[in-house]
Amino acid sequence: MTTSERRRFQPRGRRGGAPKTYTRLTHPLVRDARDEPFRQASWEEALDRVARGLERNRGAFGMFSCSRATNEMNYVAQKFARVVMGTHNVDSCNRTCHAPSVAGLSAAFGSGGGTSSYEEIEHTDVVVMWGSNARFAHPIFFQHVLKGIRNGARMYAVDPRRTSTAEWAESWLGLNVGTDIAMAHAIGREIIHAGLVNEAFVERATTGFAEYRALVEPWTLSLAEKVTGVPARAIRELAHAYARAERAQLCWTLGITEHHNGTDNVRALINLALLTGHVGRYGSGLQPLRGQNNVQGGGDMGAIPNRLPGFQDILDADVRQKFESAWDTVIQPQYGLNLTQMFEAMEDGTLRAVYCIGENPAQSEADSEQAVRRLKGLDFLVVQDIFLTKTAELADVVLPATAGWAETEGTTTNSERRVQRVRRAVTPPGEAREDIDILCDLAGRLGHDWKYADAEAVWNELRAVSPDHHGMTYARLEEHQGIQWPCPSTDRLEPTYLHGRLWETDLARRGRAAPFGIVRHDPPVDLTDEAYPIRLTTGRRLDSYNTGVQTGGFASPLRRGEYVELCPEDAERYGVVVGEEVRVTSRRGSVVAPVWVDTGLRPGLAFMTMHFPDEVDTNRLTIEANCPIAGTAEFKASAIRIEKLTERPTAPTDVR
Ligand SMILES: Nc1nc2c(c(=O)[nH]1)N[C@H]1C(S)=C(S)[C@@H](COP(=O)(O)OP(=O)(O)OC[C@H]3O[C@@H](n4cnc5c(=O)[nH]c(N)nc54)[C@H](O)[C@@H]3O)O[C@H]1N2
Ligand SMILES: Nc1nc2c(c(=O)[nH]1)N[C@H]1C(S)=C(S)[C@@H](COP(=O)(O)OP(=O)(O)OC[C@H]3O[C@@H](n4cnc5c(=O)[nH]c(N)nc54)[C@H](O)[C@@H]3O)O[C@H]1N2
Ligand SMILES: [Mo]
């Protein structure tokens, strides 16, 4: 777009308003009834109240654990749920983002981790960024992609929006929302028909190829063009580039996972790596870029309902026995409820108390009005956070924690499975206490005498029960500036990539090979029709973070509050200009938001973020339909209509 074209889209009227600023929590807050205001309390009083609230709801308890906080904190939090409260009902924000990646990768390879390392991206030939806006959401990783491009790699972007990431791509495949399986199957079919299958790899490392070939056979390029909206030749070009590359990386994020069939989407992408052998080798791999800084670690530490620390299956009797003797407890041989199921259990009254650590579900859950109603219906809600979030405002007790970043010692694990030390560099405000310290104090009140001298003591307890982490002492983490799991030995480091075993001979015959995923195209649940003609997808911007709690406090000319973004054609069709407020309505609810015009969108597609829920609560619009395997909601596909509020556009003020 030229500068003069851009000028047509300068904002007029309201600018979306200054985002809300949150202040740090410095003291415990309590109240006797939900309609009363909070009052400051001593730690003694607050923790006694929490202990009573949890005790009376034993058997109806769930914990949300914090993916912003350290591994050590997540280890203690899940141990609290399992040992003190006797439940596997523990989960985190992984449910809202990458649970389908973990489920899909585990189904194919037995392990949910991304298979390659950031460094490998610099030494690859083809990078596919599928449903991922890494330029905004994973800027550190994206630096490695840019280095790869400088070294000659070709990048392809598969995203309904021409994002800032797509601007760097050789080719942008702007598909219709929710048509990724159609696209992947057409790529698979093209690879097969062009004779580009890595036959030796398929033969020894995979199972189910014949069924897969039959599955994708109807997906001709022209059918895929009709369904996805992407020209057949662009799909063909991607198929050939990916299959012919010596090394190729397939990276994806929420554009793939936040759908009612997120796990199927992930399986459809994994199939392409299995066809071509682009996995289990240096430079070739599958990379779901994880969301919050320690969501990988939270899952690895067992803050999920189906795995004990070290991603060990609760249903494995040997695993249970190991933890039973390490923790001196009894571990039930069943999975707990995930975050989505816990919200459903609030509805039917079987979950009555929640301990929410560093999560803001009142604003981050799909169909937020319903989520708030369910949280309000709890008998007891305790929120442990660093800010007074909207969720905290619903609580009976609020506990002020230190921030996992810069105020706490410990470790976190990034998307390439690298465990790194974090350190306390700043003194926490007021009476804020470390998450672990608070949990141990509470465990004591509920009859469990837990003493950890420091974070390293927690880490060493984890190392004793998790083979993948066993070799990572704090000293070694320091020496190597972080170590990737698996690291079973204290005197050796493993390769930077996973699943090298797939290149051993004849795995298929020994039953350890990776199965192709037999998954079918299934369009979004919330259909567009005459009443709701626009497809809304939601996501992120560079300048803000998630529910805005942690980025609310900083002012920047980049931060422009919430807008509903439309393409120029739709803005013209509705007769609206940038800055003009419109009503946005879905089958769940309605919000008023100013318009922004983005030339990266196409007719019929709108975009909003989740960053400014105090001003515009986007999640009142989103649908709670979720993936039956992973529980992740379809944040990426709602149907909406846009209504003009005034007949006349507001006068141009405030032009930037
Ligand atoms: N600046 C910033 N960085 C962040 C965050 C933040 O809030 N702000 N949050 C962090 C967290 S928790 C996470 S999980 C990650 C998320 O990181 P991303 O997943 O990269 O971020 P999103 O913007 O949610 O979604 C990615 C893309 O999916 C596309 N998309 C939508 N529907 C579809 C579809 O049907 N198919 C395909 N192929 N693509 C589709 C959207 O257009 C969008 O560009 O970011 C992390 N990093
Ligand atoms: N419409 C829409 N909705 C979405 C998404 C989307 O793409 N579209 N994405 C979903 C995704 S991927 C995610 S991850 C969720 C995010 O949803 P949430 O995790 O609910 O939102 P955050 O704003 O990241 O909340 C993190 C909280 O942790 C607190 N915190 C930070 N550090 C610490 C610490 O060390 N200790 C404690 N106790 N607290 C701490 C912060 O103050 C903040 O309140 O939103 C989901 N919702
Ligand atoms: Mo996330």
Automatic annotation (TrEMBL):
Domain Molybdopterin dinucleotide-binding positions: 535-637
Gene3D superfamilies in UniProt: 2.40.40.20, 3.40.50.740, Dimethylsulfoxide Reductase, domain 2
Name of the protein: Molybdopterin-dependent oxidoreductase
Keyword set, alphabetical order: Iron, Iron-sulfur, Metal-binding
Record organism: Streptomyces carpinensis
Molybdopterin oxidoreductase domain ranges (all copies): 24-444
One Pfam family hit: Molybdopterin
Residues covered by region (Disordered): 1-21
